[in-house]
């Protein structure tokens, strides 16, 4: 099936198998490998991307479902060599160790801060509960999101 | 960025820019043209004979390149290695693909190689295997009962894999002469490490160059290279292993797995790149598990609280086959059985039992969390029997600071420690007395607050080679380019621990260069001559020391050349703010770049000085290191639901000197999270037929962000004399200290219900049942 998708502001058109998962389309067809696969069942959130601005798990969407829509992946977050404040927060506050969950975690935090620019610690902990991290114990991730929230409010 | 004094500072990680922008390369991110993909048919049975395998339909499926069975592979590839060996140990052959029978759910049976991963999976569904199911056994203790099905009947008449004992002093006598003997049985459940990146292997063979390159998500690239050379019967100098970006390990990638041998073999055979990426279900079925011990502790106690002896009789469920270190892991429990306490009479009798399950092996802490859990739970149980405060009982039995180095009853030598200092600090931060008062107040209102303390010591910095199954030393090399840029090559293989930053901090200070001018390379066997890898909280204590000693050799040469160029004496050369000069004459100064250029141009060197500027050091530690600390958990248990809320968590850890406090905090946070996960949520469950019941993250409960409070961290610093950095290691401390703190807190909360112990995980249903009894008035 032919699909047309805008990814990080660029238009892509490909002929794909109807069963191709969105995450495999992004990684193996388009070549954007920053989106990771952690569980294939929507439980870990490593594959989180923004689909028309909303955080979705790309391991349980088909590429054809993205036809005509806009996707932002981790590669599209920094603009003109400038890190996004959430990326900056993760770096400043040591919000990552192995880094595997990080792209998905950052995009989940992106949605959280769009919806709630001034979240409490509890809001953040609940807002990222669809994303698993095995390294950090989440505390530095929470601080990274707090850092970003403050910076984005300014 | 300060040019020096970066050691001890909260330096942001050098690894992060690529990771936060999605630019890093984990195994599956490496795309080679023409790559074939592997999918594996795994056993759905815990125990069965393979009667017949029909792969014809799979082989004919369009896009399939090859289908291989155990029979086909048998003569082409060796067995999966185990590095541990005890007298009398049974070692059943552990094949890449099953031959005549399968012994656990998830065991690889047939591999399909296809042009595309989707096609490979399709073709797996076309394979027909006739199994003749056999009775299975899914618990270590059941496996040792008379009449249990024998899993490896070619190895003997029972499921005893091995036995192992350790003893010190006279535990029989201590138990006989004690005022009382306190006994308790503990089950430490099976856990899945669940690194967020599953395992994965990519291999490429270039026939012209006769070069095999294997990219694997591993913690031990060099050991893997050696083992692959043996398994595949190829020359080791033709094998290059690369651990690219690795998405967590926690011990699960400290191993040599079937798929690593299989994929490497297929790449040589088919002369095309071959890739296999593990699915999460496969990861839970066929990546090693941790813990899984069941046994009884007997403690000899005097009425004044003095503990005089401990004996642990335990069955370790090792699964169906050994992985690299399977039998060695529970022996570490034995070494650390005395904890922080002066107990000279000690014994452990360990029986390893085969079961129809995946192998256990090293999972964060690897045998030491088990020891800490046992002794810290026992201390609380004993305190309860003696009607003593559990904190006072600990104080009474602590090894005193003046007694270090201290030789334990198990003959390990604790390097340094001040257990009371860490305990006092933790209790002060927690406000222990105030918490006890609040507990009493809330109990009167029918609310159940619990306070749990755990005082731990662990064995780290692994380790002296004489105490390790496959070498415990580490290598480090420091090279300076003619332009003054520095490259560090380390034999450790970090996968989240941040040594690209901490090692650069040390070198930046030591050689007087900007931290951004230091590049730390690891995980490529063509770049790093040899190394042991990252595990056992050893990377900085052992690998960092190797690097420092190499750096000191470089520094010595730098100083000699500087003295020659500046016409001074080497002993008068000082390094300040990146400038080398003769003491008292800072205006005439050289940078490392100036000196390195001179070393490489080499036309004006001091006599008897070789050109170039690069040194290597292989470091053998004289002992392990022994970090310690106190963790305090405050929980509230909901009487209506049995849910446990961790309200506060205080951790005071002493890992010796700290290179980067931010990274150390991160390690402790993550460790605590995994320890809490074990205490409250996590368990790999097989049913009595050996069927896996927790095969996805829907069933295997990994902790989430809202499960935890903000951890309150503090530290004490007791340097180790074992290495020149004074560092002890911090990778596992959090996991080791936290599990008993939480269980102690929950049992403490349930004291009004007469609860003496609960086996983990403390799931709400289990806790709720215990709270059905009417509480006694306190």
UniProtKB/TrEMBL annotation, chain A:
Ranges annotated as spanning the membrane: none
Source taxon at top rank: Bacteria
Iron-sulfur among keywords: yes
Hydrolase listed as a keyword: no
GO MF, any single term: metal ion binding
InterPro entries for this protein: 2Fe-2S-bd (IPR002888), 2Fe-2S-bd_dom_sf (IPR036884), 2Fe-2S_ferredoxin-like_sf (IPR036010), 2Fe-2S_ferredoxin-type (IPR001041), Beta-grasp_dom_sf (IPR012675), Diverse_Oxidoreductases (IPR051452)
Domain named 2Fe-2S ferredoxin-type: residues: 1-77
Keyword line: 2Fe-2S, Iron, Iron-sulfur, Metal-binding, Oxidoreductase
PANTHER family: OXIDOREDUCTASE WITH IRON-SULFUR SUBUNIT
Protein name: Carbon monoxide dehydrogenase
Organism: Handelsmanbacteria sp. (strain RIFCSPLOWO2_12_FULL_64_10)
TrEMBL record, chain B:
Residue span(s) of domain Aldehyde oxidase/xanthine dehydrogenase a/b hammerhead: 21-135
The protein's name in its UniProt record: Carbon monoxide dehydrogenase
Gene3D superfamilies to which the protein is assigned, alphabetical: Aldehyde oxidase/xanthine dehydrogenase, a/b hammerhead, Aldehyde oxidase/xanthine dehydrogenase, molybdopterin binding domain
Molecular-function annotations in GO: iron ion binding; oxidoreductase activity
Any Pfam family hit: MoCoBD_2
InterPro entries: Ald_Oxase/Xan_DH_a/b, Ald_Oxase/Xan_DH_a/b_sf, Ald_Oxase/xanthine_DH-like, AldOxase/xan_DH_MoCoBD1, AldOxase/xan_DH_MoCoBD2, AldOxase/xan_DH_Mopterin-bd_sf, Glyceraldehyde_dh-related
Keywords: Molybdenum, Oxidoreductase
């Amino acid at each position: 099936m032919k699909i047309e998708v805008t990814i990080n502001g660029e238009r892509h058109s490909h002929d794909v198998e109807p069963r191709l998962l969105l995450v495999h389309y992004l990684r193996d067809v388009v070549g954007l490998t920053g989106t990771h696969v952690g569980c294939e069942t929507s439980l870990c959130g490593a594959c989180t991307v923004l689909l028309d601005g909303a955080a979705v798990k790309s391991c349980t969407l088909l590429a054809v479902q993205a036809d005509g829509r806009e996707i932002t992946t981790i590669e599209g977050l920094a603009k003109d060599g400038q890190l996004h404040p959430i990326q900056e927060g993760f770096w400043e506050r040591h919000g990552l160790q192995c880094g595997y969950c990080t792209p998905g975690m950052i995009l989940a935090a992106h949605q959280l801060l769009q919806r709630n620019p001034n979240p409490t610690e509890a809001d953040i902990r609940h807002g990222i509960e669809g994303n698993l991290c095995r390294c950090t114990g989440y505390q530095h991730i929470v601080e990274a999101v707090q850092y970003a929230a403050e910076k984005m409010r300014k | 960025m300060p040019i020096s004094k970066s050691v001890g500072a909260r330096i942001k990680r050098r690894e992060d820019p690529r990771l936060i922008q999605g630019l890093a390369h984990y195994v599956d991110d490496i795309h080679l043209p023409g790559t074939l993909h592997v999918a594996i048919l795994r056993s759905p049975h815990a125990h069965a004979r393979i009667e017949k395998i029909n792969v014809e339909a799979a082989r004919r499926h369009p896009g399939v390149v090859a289908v291989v069975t155990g029979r086909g592979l048998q003569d082409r590839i060796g067995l999966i290695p185990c590095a541990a060996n005890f007298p009398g140990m049974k070692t059943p052959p552990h094949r890449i693909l099953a031959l005549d029978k399968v012994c656990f759910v998830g065991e690889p049976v047939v591999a399909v190689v296809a042009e595309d991963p989707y096609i490979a999976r399709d073709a797996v569904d076309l394979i027909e295997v006739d199994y003749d199911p056999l009775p299975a056994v899914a618990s270590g203790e059941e496996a040792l009962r008379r009449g249990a099905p024998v899993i490896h009947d070619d190895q003997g008449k029972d499921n005893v894999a091995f036995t192992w004992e350790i003893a010190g002093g006279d535990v029989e006598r201590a138990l006989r002469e004690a005022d009382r003997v306190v006994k308790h049985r503990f089950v430490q459940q099976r856990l899945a490490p669940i690194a967020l990146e599953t395992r994965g292997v990519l291999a490429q063979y270039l026939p012209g160059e006769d070069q095999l390159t294997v990219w694997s998500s591993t913690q031990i690239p060099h050991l893997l290279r050696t083992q692959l050379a043996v398994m595949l019967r190829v020359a080791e100098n033709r094998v290059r292993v690369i651990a690219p970006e690795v998405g967590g390990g926690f011990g699960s990638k400290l191993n040599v797995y079937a798929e690593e041998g299989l994929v490497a073999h297929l790449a040589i055979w088919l002369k095309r790149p071959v890739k296999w990426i593990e699915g999460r279900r496969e990861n839970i079925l066929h990546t090693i598990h941790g813990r899984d011990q069941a046994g009884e502790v007997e403690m000899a106690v005097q009425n004044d609280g003095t503990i005089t002896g401990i004996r642990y009789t335990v069955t370790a469920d090792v699964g169906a086959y050994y992985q690299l270190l399977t039998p060695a892991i529970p022996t570490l429990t034995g070494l650390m059985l005395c904890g922080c306490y002066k107990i000279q009479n000690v014994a452990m009798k360990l029986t390893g039992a085969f079961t129809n399950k995946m192998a256990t092996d090293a999972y964060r802490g690897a045998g030491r969390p088990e020891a800490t859990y046992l002794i810290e739970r026992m201390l609380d149980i004993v305190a309860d029997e003696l009607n003593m405060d559990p904190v006072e009982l600990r104080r009474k039995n602590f090894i005193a600071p003046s007694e270090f180095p201290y030789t334990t009853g198990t003959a390990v030598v604790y390097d340094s420690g001040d257990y009371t200092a860490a305990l006092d600090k933790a209790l002060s931060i927690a406000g222990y007395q105030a918490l006890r008062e609040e507990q009493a107040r809330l109990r009167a209102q029918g609310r159940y607050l619990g306070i749990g303390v755990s005082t731990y010591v662990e064995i780290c910095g692994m380790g002296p080679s004489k105490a390790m199954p496959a070498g415990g030393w580490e290598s480090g090399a420091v090279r300076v380019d003619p332009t003054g840029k520095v490259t560090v090559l380390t034999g450790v293989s970090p996968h989240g621990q941040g040594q690209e930053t901490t090692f650069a901090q040390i070198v930046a200070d030591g050689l007087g260069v900007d931290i951004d001018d230091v590049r730390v390379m690891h995980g490529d066997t063509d770049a790093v001559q040899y190394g042991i890898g990252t595990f056992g909280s050893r990377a900085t204590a052992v690998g960092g020391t190797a690097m420092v000693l190499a750096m000191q050799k470089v520094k010595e040469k730098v100083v000699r050349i500087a003295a020659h160029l500046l016409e001074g004496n080497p002993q008068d050369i000082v390094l300040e703010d990146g400038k080398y000069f003769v003491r008292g004459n800072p205006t005439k100064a050289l940078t490392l770049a100036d000196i390195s250029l001179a070393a490489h141009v080499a036309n004006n060197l001091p006599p008897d000085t070789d050109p170039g500027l690069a040194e290597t050091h292989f470091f053998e530690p004289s002992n392990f290191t022994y970090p310690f600390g106190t963790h305090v958990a405050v929980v509230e248990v909901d009487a209506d639901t049995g849910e446990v809320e961790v309200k506060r968590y205080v951790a005071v850890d002493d890992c010796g000197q700290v290179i980067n406090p931010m990274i150390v905090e991160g390690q402790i946070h993550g460790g605590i999270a995994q320890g809490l996960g074990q205490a409250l949520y996590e368990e790999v469950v097989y049913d009595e037929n050996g069927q896996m019941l927790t095969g996805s993250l829907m069933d295997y409960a990994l902790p989430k962000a809202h499960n935890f409070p903000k951890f309150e961290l503090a530290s004490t610093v007791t340097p180790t004399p074992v290495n020149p950095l004074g560092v002890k290691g911090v990778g596992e401390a959090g996991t080791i200290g936290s599990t008993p703190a939480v269980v102690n807190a929950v049992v403490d909360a349930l004291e009004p219900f007469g609860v003496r112990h609960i086996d983990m995980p403390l799931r709400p249903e289990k806790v709720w049942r215990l709270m059905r009894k009417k509480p006694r008035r306190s």
